[in-house]
Design a protein that fits this description.
The protein has six domains: 94 residues, Immunoglobulins (Immunoglobulin-like), CATH 2.60.40; 81 residues, no CATH class; 83 residues, no CATH class; 110 residues, no CATH class; 108 residues; 87 residues, Immunoglobulin-like (Sandwich). The mean pLDDT is 83. The N and C termini lie far apart (84 Å). It is mostly beta strands. Helices cover 11% and strands 45% of the residues. It is built from seven helices and 47 strands.
Length: 638
């Protein structure tokens, strides 16, 4: 096959999505070859990378994994009033007039953006657009033919990749050589995701002193991955990895998707992992509605537009007696007072999504209330898509404030070590006390170190409330509660012991003519099929690394104006990849020390003064996560 007169090879049959395939190139002399995503353009090129081994040779192999057919995001096509990727070609060829058209069409919206941010977006992008227009106008007919062919192939789910080889003298192949292939978009995936690599590698040694260990898994296709400390079904695993999807492809193993988690490995040597493909991203929101005798937006004061005479909060968030209009990203920042149900709710989103709602916190697929089909918004300053739902009045107002889990451990210093909480929850740990302040609903969990055996746990909740506590999956008990200044403060003494998990639960007891309701809203990706799930767990195993210990010399009295600062480490520097640094003042950062033996580092110290005392601090760390600190003191007496 050929492209604009250049020879190439077409791979058949079609490539399966996410499955590895290898192709080889032979050269007439020893060369280094790299793969490029575009041909050689005079002023522009896309990224390139070397074949597996960048050495000089005559046979070159490369293994790749390709995602399914890529496409221009639908929201961009909708915004530009296009139906397919091929419509981009005339836009590029007429970029100047097209740019001026959209600049005029969006003039009012761009002025609002400038007033809010203080940035003139037109002033920022005008020079770049002009450069692009100049680049396109300077393209030769050959380059335009290549670009059009690449976009046509892209539209069909195919790809061109270009190969460039250079010999030892630096000469490169004269003509463009390419490989053309197509991904099988109709391939029916019946296989669960495969974990192809882990970092740190499986069966690694790890420090147990750090508690949390960052683990990365590289999966062969976009996936949702979960883990547990005992083997169980995917649906029962409560802890999750954060996984890349879409175009966020890692170069590891020819193209994979990275999933990361900070796993608690302090008391465990293994975790069990299962993954499901076809992951759908779901965003959850909590809409607070108060039924009473006034119409108002609660919390709107934070959107202060007083400096702009033609701009008001209602341009973005609005409420009437029985309607609410709000961007989804703003829902949890504000609340709404209304006079009657049903409520006509309009939410605005940057993506076209499937949205549902319920009157209780539950999984997205269990939500029974449905929004209508989202459509292109007439108010793009709020969001590109608009989604509607009629909210009926729930039978009972929501008085449940929520649950919060605190994992408490004895340690030398107070502080929060990890966790996730709802935005309106603040926690402070200090001097034998833990204070939790709740400004609305509460949810989440947090790991906290305390330096006392006995502490007082307190929680401050707005309005009248009752709070209970439960230790280590026992039974709930009452806390001592008092009302002060329109809030309730509840306390309870807690014994830490070897560590304790405390679950807090609070309920609103305020009596008022107003009724508070909470609607839980979920918006998920559309057209997502049921995923394939691992039937067996991937077992990630770690063993405990020996702690890192150090000794530092010299100490006491020395009789020279220069000396060798020597650090002896307990492990092997080469095997354990140990590094050490030193300084007189550790707050200025550490100076690198040099390896002088497989268990020793050294640094030559000069300019020492007779009769003066010196203190040097040393910090060392290894590849397992161990850290060691120490210092030495000596006096110069000559």
């Amino acid at each position: 096959t050929e492209l604009a007169g250049n020879p190439g090879v077409r791979i058949t049959p079609m490539i399966r999505p996410h499955k590895p395939f290898t192709f080889g190139i032979k050269t007439s002399e020893e060369s280094r070859c790299r793969l490029k995503l575009s041909p050689r353009f005079e002023y522009f090129s896309l990224p390139s990378f070397w074949f597996n081994d960048p050495g000089f040779k005559t046979e070159h192999n490369l293994t790749l994994r390709m995602p399914p057919k890529l496409s221009i995001p639908q929201k961009l096509l909708d915004f530009l009033n296009m139906t397919s990727t091929s419509d981009i070609i005339p836009l590029l060829e007429n970029l100047g007039p097209t740019y001026e058209y959209y600049k005029e069409r969006l003039r009012d919206k761009l002025e609002i953006y400038t007033m809010i941010t203080g940035k003139d977006i037109i002033e920022e992008i005008d020079p770049e657009v002009k450069k692009t227009i100049e680049l396109i106008s300077s393209m030769t007919p050959y380059i335009k033919t290549v670009v059009r062919s690449m976009i046509d192939e892209f539209t069909k789910g195919g790809y061109y990749i270009f190969v460039e080889c250079s010999d030892r003298a630096g000469n490169i192949n004269k003509g463009e050589f390419f490989v053309q292939f197509e991904v099988d978009a109709d391939y029916v995936d019946k296989e669960a995701p495969i974990i192809v690599y882990a970092s740190p590698p499986n069966n690694s040694k790890m420090s147990r002193t750090k508690g949390l260990t960052e683990i990365s898994l590289f999966v062969d296709e976009p996936a949702e991955c979960r883990y547990s400390y005992e083997d169980m079904e995917f649906k029962d695993m409560e802890k999750s990895f954060m996984c890349n999807t879409g175009y966020h492809i890692s170069p590891v193993a020819g193209g994979t998707y990275e999933c990361t988690a900070n796993a608690e490995m302090k008391n465990s040597t293994r975790i069990f992992v299962r993954c499901r493909d076809n992951p759908s991203k779901t965003d959850l929101y909590q809409l607070d509605v108060i039924l009473g005798n006034e119409t108002r937006i609660i919390g709107i004061d934070k959107y202060n537009y007083s400096n702009y005479s033609n701009l008001s909060p209602e341009m973005y968030v609005n409420v009437t007696e029985d309607s609410i209009e709000v961007p989804a990203k703003t829902i949890e920042d504000v609340g709404f007072r209304i006079k009657r149900f049903p409520v006509d709710l309009k939410i605005y989103l940057p993506e076209n999504r499937d949205c549902r709602y319920s009157n209780s916190s539950q999984e997205f697929k269990e939500m029974e209330g449905r929004f209508g089909r989202c459509r292109i918004s007439e108010r793009i300053e709020r969001g590109l898509y608009e989604c509607d739902a009629d909210l009926e009045q729930p039978s009972e107002p929501d008085i449940f404030i929520g649950n919060l889990t605190l994992k408490l451990d004895k340690a030398a210093d107070d502080g929060i070590t990890s966790g996730y909480m709802s935005d309106n929850v603040d926690i402070n740990a200090d001097s034998g006390k833990i204070d939790v302040v709740v400004g609305g609903k509460m949810a989440g969990e947090s790991s906290i170190n305390v330096n006392s055996e006995e502490i007082v746990l307190g929680i401050n909740v707005s309005g009248s409330a009752e709070c209970r506590y439960m230790e280590d999956e026992g039974i709930f008990g009452d806390m001592a509660c008092n009302e002060e200044d329109n809030s309730t403060i509840c306390t309870r003494p807690i014994t830490i012991g070897d560590g304790v998990s405390v679950k807090l639960q609070c309920t609103n007891t305020s009596e008022t003519d107003e009724k508070n309701y909470v609607f839980y809203i979920g918006c998920s990706d559309i057209n997502i099929t049921e995923g394939n799930v691992n039937n067996e767990s991937y077992v990630y195993v770690s063993s405990e690394a020996e702690p890192l210990n150090i000794t530092v010399k010299p100490s006491g009295v020395i009789s020279e104006k220069e000396t060798e600062l020597v650090v002896k480490v307990s492990g092997s520097i080469s095997r354990d990849r140990i590094n050490c640094g030193y300084n007189e003042n550790p707050f200025y950062g550490m100076l690198e020390m040099q390896k002088i033996a497989d268990d020793r580092f050294g640094a030559h110290i000069t300019g020492l003064e007779n009769g003066k005392k010196y203190r040097y601090y040393v910090q060392c760390y290894d590849s397992y996560g161990n850290e060691a600190e120490g210092f030495t003191e000596f006096e110069v007496v000559i």
